[in-house]
Amino acid sequence: MDLLCDGLCSQRCKLKILRLNQCNLTTECCSALESALGSTSSHLRELDLSGNDFQDSGVKLLSAGLQKLETLRMSSCGITEEGCASLASALRSNPSYLRTLVLCDNNLHNSGVKLLSAGLGNKHCELETLRLSGCLVSIEGCASLASALRSNPSHLRELDLSYNHPGELDDPLFILNVEHNDECYLKPGLKKYACALTLDPNTAHKNLSLSNNGRTVTWEDDDHLCLPHTERFNDCPRVLCREGLTGCCYWEAECSGKGFHVGVAYKHMSRVGKGHNCLLGCNDKSWSLRLLKHGFLKLSVWHKNERTVIPAPSSSTDRVGVYLNSSQGTLSFYLVYSDTLTHLHTFQSTYTEPLYLAFSVNDYSSVSLC
Length: 370
Fold this sequence. Notes:
InterPro entries: B30.2/SPRY, B30.2/SPRY_sf, Butyrophylin_SPRY, ConA-like_dom_sf, Leu-rich_rpt, LRR_dom_sf, NLR, PRY. Residues 177-370 form the B30.2/SPRY domain. By secondary structure, this protein is an alpha/beta fold. It has 6 helices and 20 strands.
């Protein structure tokens, strides 16, 4: 990061857009980046720091350098109320150049939104787009936003409050997104996106047995008597879920035995043969995490038959979490320890149709949806 920031400070650097999403940036990195942003020679106008868990302390370090930006994306950065105070300062700066602010999937709560609203209502703020999807906002937070819009009504044109519980909100904007606005979306973290899934028996290979109302799949030596079906995997021990997934979806699965593959696939993934077109993660129609247990966890992710090895964690677990945000084009895998998620890998893709949860089960293993 120090080398990158040195380059940004150079008078020869004309870079205007910098994307550092999912780069494991720390608070220390934010300090170096702030220095570059505040440099008189910096031409940077768009910055994406999404998926870096530098939290409020990182935002505070960055805040002084944010005033020259036009677009700032900080989704899933561990920001809370304290970080909102720093961001509100950037909104109130004179002059304020910020036009787009994206803070999705941070636990801002109403208290944080109230601080942002104070900046939004300031006469110097000319923000045009504010995205707060999945930020634990309820009626109280929306009241603060409405008050800010009445105070400074001429600039904001797009407000995203999807995956919150905003209640009724007058729409003085050109675009107001309040989709998925039930009370369940006030849960912190990714569990607000939890979805109920069931495995499709018509897709299950003959050696796979479904139980627990279609939420558990087990490898068995004996072939099951299965009626012929065009959706069934004939040669690979695989099963898909019934439900097509779009938007924001999160689920967890737990394995017993030697291991399994979990991923997503398009509905039309090939069912016949053992070639790459049928193997999970070995083609352009599927993405997967492979978890094998040989006294320790062995992890890898796959897409288009390209493997990325994940370093073995310090402690073992049998549970994984998967988060899909199809509109943002991200698919993320996690290890689950009690209520703590450890990020493993995020695929960035363009998803052109609904995706289906897929399991491949190793010999003498079983997998259950949690």
